[in-house]
């Protein structure tokens, strides 16, 4: 309970210390009687400088702490298009109409220190302004996401929005083509110095893929215009029970028409892991894994963009990743039948996996006129992972021994093409487009017993899938207070899975509509009300539908389910934001045909497979507060409370219902202009979903960050999981058995990172490509 007291005191201090501004300057910026959107307004005198950005209607608002005479300047595309001296002693309205006769002054760079909001609520997303956050200075991409409201980041469970499952990650609106460890390493190669903001999209609009039953994270890079070379090198050490390292190097080069970027990344890791699994019932099992995970990898990313003329440009993006993931496992398993031991097994396993991924994207962008655009994109992805699993099992009951080699060769290929139109009109903004995707997977599994091929346990599986999508989205700023966005996406899928060994084929197809709706009411700058709705789909990955058996021991195996169906989500949210500092969101989420991996006894074997077996209704409330109550203190507080009610079908499981609760507090203290101290804590209390009861987790972390040489050298030292609360444990309920799990993956660690950059301080922004179908190739 002591953590609740900490949070309460935190909130009280924040509200008591919050600044109250005396004057407000607002107005509308127009040019030749047309509104100027996203222009920069700078207000300054010898004592103070503040700034803001106009909205879609050209409106702006500035809070001015001191009564005085100021200079007001307007910048558009880094060009000063207006300047005027204003006296501010009360609230004033300053409407500005700029004519062609105004003198425009081109400048190299505008540097301001203002009160840009740390967190903003847009019509379909929450925006975390990284460049205005003390906590996010000198960090990599993963650490930046950890500091973002609503997000929870863990190297083992991945990245998620609190209260939801995993999310997809985008760069500049284009989905990344990485999963698992590759995604973590790629995000660690990004630096917060080059990130402008992080957008959390809890209910994605029709433009984006309907795949994924949660949300999207969009990392927006800074729009820099300087030409020439830019270099960045970083290295990181992570000490848990074992040492892990990572290294990154980036070189950018830009001219007036050409933009290029080359990124190199390398990593190696080693950590201990323990997994305990118990099944209690008529047939029972006690299994203990003591595991060493280790591996290494490297990758490269090359981007090139060329401006053909003022209206069009072409580009190419290539990414390669090579990784080795290994596990040495010592397992003891005791099987009982009616409380009598019939097998007492000791197994040593060597798991060796090699993955090589190639991604190629090509695009052509065309400006139809000053605001309308069309984009044509082609994508190709190839992955050829190879896995060998060797295990030796000794049965202490009868002194027998099994020596087994499992080999797997997989060939994933995904190709897609899409065309997107962005068509702003006076009365509405229209977005529409189409996408065609072809997926194929040819996998071969070989099972050798004493080096002799066992055809009955070997398999060849061929899988093909084609997806066709069409979307339409309309958005409109009705007036200064009301905004609306509505969209509809249609996706048609055709699936064909064939097991050569089993001579079994599964074919089916389906077409579904995915609507989305957003409505925002903003009576003034202090209050924002929002409501949104969307429907989503979660398609299984390839491994989940492959019907053959992947053995981890002579009596235990994993198998896919070729009849596994996608699950569907309905999401509804109602939100309120006060001064873009405090927000509260109530949500309802309905999950139909939810699926997961379940383990049961089938004869003498313990079998893990995937099934659609539950529906679930989830209700909840999110509260967050983000502010800089003092110049030297930045804080973020987040609270979540939810209730889940599940309905189980198809299996003899016991449905669970109950509440869940999560809270976090992140604090950054400025010691001086170069030194920062961090103190963060989050805790997830026990929760229930489907037929599973998940026990709580937590993470207390602290550290320091040092910024030297005019921010060219960044050093950070952070200790995580100080209380050793990053454990995964819970219970799974069936009619005839109860299963218990308790796992720990070496979460307590100390991370040291160093980053140095030189050359031209800023570079042009390069394009990223939406190609998230690759996420299912695992």
Based on CA atoms alone, the radius of gyration comes out at 28 Å
What class, by secondary structure content? Answer: mainly beta
Unreliable spans: 1-21, 104-115
Strand element count: 48
Q: CATH homologous superfamily name of the largest domain? A: TonB-dependent receptor, beta-barrel domain
As for the number of domains, it is: 2
Global shape = globular
Classified by CATH, the class of the largest domain is Mainly Beta
Protein name: TonB-dependent receptor
Subcellular location: Cell outer membrane
GO cellular component, one term: cell outer membrane
Pfam family, one: OMP_b-brl_3
Give the gist of this structure.
With 778 residues, the chain is mainly beta. The protein is 4% helix and 66% strand.
Secondary-structure blueprint of this entry?
Blueprint: H1 2-17, E1 23-31, E2 34-35, E3 40-44, E4 49-53, E5 59-64, E6 68-76, E7 79-88, E8 92-93, E9 96-98, E10 105-106, E11 119-121, E12 126-128, H2 141-146, E13 151-154, E14 158-161, E15 168-171, E16 174-175, H3 180-188, E17 195-201, E18 216-221, E19 228-239, E20 243-254, E21 258-281, E22 283-309, E23 312-337, E24 340-367, E25 373-383, E26 386-395, E27 400-424, E28 429-449, E29 452-453, E30 459-477, E31 482-499, E32 504-524, E33 527-538, H4 542-545, E34 549-553, E35 556-559, E36 567-578, E37 582-602, E38 605-630, E39 633-648, E40 657-670, E41 675-684, E42 687-689, E43 692-694, E44 697-708, E45 713-720, E46 727-733, E47 737-744, E48 749-759
Parallel strand pairs: 1-8, 1-9, 15-18, 35-38
Antiparallel strand pairs: 1-2, 1-5, 3-4, 3-6, 6-7, 7-10, 11-12, 12-17, 13-14, 15-16, 17-18, 19-20, 19-48, 20-21, 21-22, 21-47, 22-23, 23-24, 24-25, 24-26, 25-27, 26-27, 27-28, 28-29, 28-30, 30-31, 31-32, 32-33, 33-36, 34-35, 36-37, 37-38, 38-39, 39-40, 40-41, 41-44, 42-43, 43-46, 44-45, 45-48, ...
